[in-house]
Every structure is written in C-alpha cells, then in structure tokens.
Amino acid sequence: MPIYDRKMETLSRGALEQLQLERLQITLNRVVRNVAFYRQQFDSRRIDTLSIKSLDDLRRLPFTTKDDVRMGSPYDMFAVPLRDIVRVQCSAGTTGDPVGVGYTANDIRHWSGVIARILAAAGVSDQDFIQISFPYGLMTGGMGFHYGAERIGASVIPASGEEVHRQITIMKYFKATVLVGRPGYALAMARAMAEMNLRPEQLNLRCGIFGSEPWSENQRAQIQEQLRIRAYDSYGLSEIMGPGLAGECEEQNGMHIQEDHFIAEVINPDTLEPAPAGEEGELVFTTITKEAFPMIRYRTGDIARITDEPCACGRTFRRMSRVKDRTDNLIFVNGHKFFPSEVDEIIQKAAGLSPNFKIVLDRKEGAETVEIHLEVTSDFPQLDEIKALERMRESVARALVAALGVEVAVKFVQPASRLTAGGKKVIPIEDRRKQDGQRK
Ligand SMILES: [Zn+2]
Q1: How many angstroms is it from 114 CA to the middle of ligand 1?
Q2: Which domains does the chain possess?
Q3: What is the pTM for the complete model shown?
Q4: CB 9 within 8 A of CB 3
Q5: Residues flanking ion ligand 1, Cβ below 5 Å
Q6: What is the per-residue pLDDT across 264-286, written as a single tens digit (0 to 9) for each?
Q7: Is 207:231 a contact under the CB 8 Å cutoff?
C-alpha cells in the first residue's frame, strides 16, 4: 500500500532524531516565552531550556499531568495570541472535568496530515467513501478524522452520532467503503445488521479504522468476521492533539507513532524512570510541532509498550502496542497490583462464560481479598452439570491466580447488564475495603 508521506515516514533514525531535537528546541523556546506554567516549572527547578542539547536531555524536564492542564482557564496553556486560534475542542473527560484545547491553522494542517497518513496506511485512498461515526462537536474524534479524510481526497460521510440502525441505512445508501469509529460501536452495528436481516456482503464496507477505547485482538477478530472487513487500530488523545498520534499499517501489528510531530517515551509509573526498551509502561508524549497548545512530557495514564523493530511496510516510525489499560485503573492488593483488563483477558478466553464479571475487593482477618463474580449465561445448571461448573470455576481461578499473582476466589452469580448508555464496556469494581476501614 502506498505511503502517504514517504519522505517523512521512511526517514532514517539519525535524520529523524536530528529533526526531533531541532523541533523540540523550538517548542521549548516557544513555551518558555509564552506559557507562564512552563516558565515556572522550569525556573523552580533551575532548568535552562538552552541546556537541552540532546533527546536524552528531555528527561531532565518535569512531567505535565492532566491536573496541571485542568488548572485555571484553558487559555493559560496557549502559547499563541488568541487571534491565532482557529478552533477549540475538548478532551473526552473520562477522568474528571473536560479539558479545553486549541489549534492554530498550522496545527489543523498538521493534524489533517497525520490522519491522512494513518488512513493511507490502512489502504484508504481518494476512491473511498469514509463514514465517520465518531460524534462531531467538541470531542476531537469526528472533526479530526473528517479533515484528514478530506485531505486524502476521499468522500466523507459525516454520519456522526446517528442511531445505530440509521447509521447502517446511511452506510448502505451511500455505499460506504470505510468505517471510522469506536470498536464497540462496530460490534453494535454488526448486531443491528443481524436484526435488520442484512448480510455484510450487501454492504460495500472493506475496512475500518477504530480508536478512542481499549480493545483486544479477540474483538478485532469479531469485528473482522462479523463485518467482513479489515479492522485497524489507531491512537490519540485530545491533550496532545486528538486522534492521529499513531495508527496501524497493513501489517496490523502495532501502531506507527507520528514521530516527526511527537516524541514518545515509556516510563515506569511508580518510579517515573524510563521503562526498559520494549517493556510495558505509561506513555508520555511531547509535542514538537504544535503551536497553540504544546505539551511537554505529558503523562497520558495509558499503559502500552513501544518497539523499534523494523516493520515490513517500510515505515521507520516506531510502533506502539494496543493500550492495555489506564494507570488509574490499577488495583493494589496485599502489595501486588493488577489491571481489571488482565482479568478480562482470562474471562474472555474461557469457554462457556458470559463476558460480564465483577471484581469485589474486601478485607478478611487483616488480609485483602479478591473475589471475581462470574455470570452464568443460561439457567442455573442441573445437578449433573454442577460438577462441570465446579471444574470450570477451579480452572478459571487457577488461570487468574497465575496471571495476576494474587489469591483469587471465583463465584458464580446471576446475570446483570454491564453496559453503559454509550455502549462502552465498564468493568465494575466493588471496593469494600474502605467501608471496612470506616467502621473500625
Ligand atoms: Zn508498518
């Protein structure tokens, strides 16, 4: 498949790092002059940004957190006069209040450019009809992909947040070939198509670019099978720019990070030191071309790994893995820690179980306990099935203990709906440990 911006996307590592350093120095110069927050951050640590002379020196700069960005008016973080701002948008606000961000005309141009690269990497061209099912408006998904799709010369169908059955009617009517949206929404569309007695062959859809929520290889397989398309992962966040930070190529094996616009690091969220090469940790991004809303070492809270192994597609940008989870979801039990997504992975693999479950944390005789409430799919089993159920319970418990490294009890409960109104899967966690503490 053609590489949209061949010169940049295939730069040698040396040339890329030189470009990154030059752009980083320009960005630091801009933020020190124009953003009081950064000036104070650096001054209080006696950091002279002119002393940042290599990419390794970047590590001497302090991190920026979501709380830093949320403090005060969004305009406090702008590095250009307000007359140069051509658009404002908001972060999704999955944790706390939304955060306002802004763009200059150049920022919008760069944003469209990286989205165009990501679409091209998934095989999208000016021949395609791209249906965008991200909501338009303040969130960055809809507008971000819209401009990138136009840049590539494709025809955009701005279906936005239309109701799912209507979305399919639109898709059929306009003969959409590409779907952009949340992976969970794609699965909801597949279910709705079944309700409408519509087979995937009756549509023209051939590929989908998904993002904005964590998803698994298992879900990718389901989407590809149920919609008969190739499903690609993409990554972005509004504080950095919006969608388009990274996207998969035809190899479907990790997302190329747009490294001429962003410097990516992986840190250990506890020690804040760099994670060993190729190992999992929290993603940290520094923008190096943003004019309106530059971010220096922004802690994303997203857990992933980055590989610098060459990719068969020829692009030289490093690749990041799927986002496994968020640091704020981490569960600490008896000095060990694990992610709800690790439990999810085991449950999804076990045959004969409903994908829904609940994690219950409690304290018994001084020790913290973990109980996983699994749902039985049909009526409670007959007597002769109880043995089979017990075997399943034991095998799931063994797999969980092995994966999480903590003692886990497994209990079967009656089914309950685990979907929010927006359709995103939420893993419920009931933490009874705090209530316990209050009673004492
Ligand atoms: Zn590739």
Answers
A1: 15
A2: 70-328 (3.40.50.12780), 331-439 (3.30.300.30)
A3: 0.86
A4: yes
A5: 249, 251, 311, 313, 315
A6: 999 999 999 999 999 999 999 99
A7: yes
